[in-house]
Amino acid sequence: MRIGVIGGGAWGTALAQVAAAGGEETLLWAREPEVVEAVNLRRENSVFLPGISLSTAIRATDALDDLAGCEALLVVTPAQHMRRVLAGLPALAVPLVLCSKGIEEGSAKLMHQVAHEAQPAAAIAVLSGPTFAHEVAAGLPAAVTLAIADQAAGEAVAARIARPNFRPYLSDDLTGAEIGGAVKNVLAIACGVVEGRGLGQNARAAIISRGFAEMTRFGLARGARAETLAGLAGLGDLVLTCSSTSSRNFALGKGLGEGADAKALLADRKTVAEGAFTAPVLRQAAADAGVEMPIVGAVCDLLAGSASVDAVVENLLSRPLRAEGL
Ligand SMILES: NC(=O)C1=CN([C@@H]2O[C@H](COP(=O)(O)OP(=O)(O)OC[C@H]3O[C@@H](n4cnc5c(N)ncnc54)[C@H](O)[C@@H]3O)[C@@H](O)[C@H]2O)C=CC1
Ligand SMILES: O=C(CO)COP(=O)(O)O
């Protein structure tokens, strides 16, 4: 097996399909025995990515040990589970390509920091960008940022995962690529709220643009480069997920905007809406860095049930007038 994928959710399955489309034998590790069985017997992940016929070059397993012989590993667990899953593997020397979007609760660490602590000998790359899993799995065109410190290693990984309809763009800014993906999830919840409450398309565009200002302020404070945040992994993904109920984060926000209870919405989920986990740790990290993120704060209040939609909107609209620049 040459490429291994850790995580049999929608995105891990879609990335396994991309890998297999290049003729690579691909091993997909999934936690759920029913996912392993469905992929191996029916060539479909009917739990997390129904309706997509999967390549015969994909084999699924529920044994992490089976990944030992892979030459590269794509890591696609939900962000809050990445440390434990990586720590459960033997020491790895193959490249780890992190595809999850989030910030670790408690530590406020980015996934590349978490992965480095769990697997210090592995080269770490971050793959992030505007990529709804079902479109990628169906072979529709998409482009991503592939961030890795070592350029030669990056070129090798890019060559390995690039396909005619899947274009990685290289970067060495892991922090920027990760902050873009993590922050946009929280902003997508805010845009969903705008939709659910019927606040209009002007308001949504305002949230995208002022949200991008928040992302940029926070990213620069954590050492990201502005050009990365303005690229596929930042602005590109922000625009995608702030515009469609195909985004689980947007859909969660839409429910909040329609007046549903946050706890009930979250308890009801089988799939992950990363923004709900990222929002509180992001608010704290921003406060620690002295960065204002009022939209992120509003999402936190809604998720905690500590303020109504109308109250957070009024709060945002009554902030002191200021210059547009960062
Ligand atoms: N679905 C998408 O279109 C995209 C998702 N991503 C990111 O990929 C990551 C994974 O998301 P999806 O594949 O969409 O997941 P999903 O929402 O389709 O499935 C949930 C996943 O969580 C896993 N899980 C649940 N409890 C777990 C535990 N205790 N330990 C380890 N894993 C556990 C399940 O096994 C399953 O793989 C997230 O960080 C997400 O932001 C990134 C780009 C696109
Ligand atoms: O990250 C994604 C697309 O790039 C998927 O967004 P959601 O997790 O909100 O569905």
TrEMBL record:
UniProt entry tagged with the keyword Zinc: no
Reaction it catalyzes: sn-glycerol 3-phosphate + NADP(+) = dihydroxyacetone phosphate + NADPH + H(+); sn-glycerol 3-phosphate + NAD(+) = dihydroxyacetone phosphate + NADH + H(+)
A GO term from the CC aspect: cytosol
Binding residue positions for substrate: K101, R248, N249
InterPro entries: 6-PGluconate_DH-like_C_sf, 6PGD_dom2, G3P_DH_NAD-dep, G3P_DH_NAD-dep_C, G3P_DH_NAD-dep_N, NAD(P)-bd_dom_sf
Highest taxon of source: Bacteria
Binding site for NADPH: W11, R31, K101, A133, R248, V272, E274
Active-site feature positions: K184
One Gene Ontology term from the biological process aspect of the record: glycerophospholipid metabolic process
Sorted UniProt keywords: Cytoplasm, Lipid biosynthesis, Lipid metabolism, NAD, NADP, Nucleotide-binding, Oxidoreductase, Phospholipid biosynthesis, Phospholipid metabolism
Pathway info: Membrane lipid metabolism; glycerophospholipid metabolism
Ranges of residues in domain Glycerol-3-phosphate dehydrogenase NAD-dependent N-terminal: 3-152
EC number: 1.1.1.94
Secreted found in the keyword field: no
Cited HAMAP family: NAD_Glyc3P_dehydrog
NCBIfam families: PRK00094.1-2 (NF000940), PRK00094.1-4 (NF000942)
Family: Belongs to the NAD-dependent glycerol-3-phosphate dehydrogenase family.
The name this protein goes by in its record: Glycerol-3-phosphate dehydrogenase [NAD(P)+]
Organism in which the protein naturally occurs: Allosphingosinicella indica
